[in-house]
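Repro:
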Amino acid sequence: METREIIKQIVNLPIEDKLLLLERTLHSIREVNLKEKMNRAVSELYEEYTINKELTVFTEIDFENFYEAR
């Protein structure tokens, strides 16, 4: 279906259906945008964590037993 055909169909919808369509479209756009931003952030941080050992210094003790002092 082409964009013009879709718009013609939308025009004929009742207002409730138009609003629902708008809400779901906006939600979809925001979701895709958020995923893209997160993927970019992960890529940037991954490089930083592989280069900067100060960021991962405490991972050396991850598997040591931890005992809370009381």
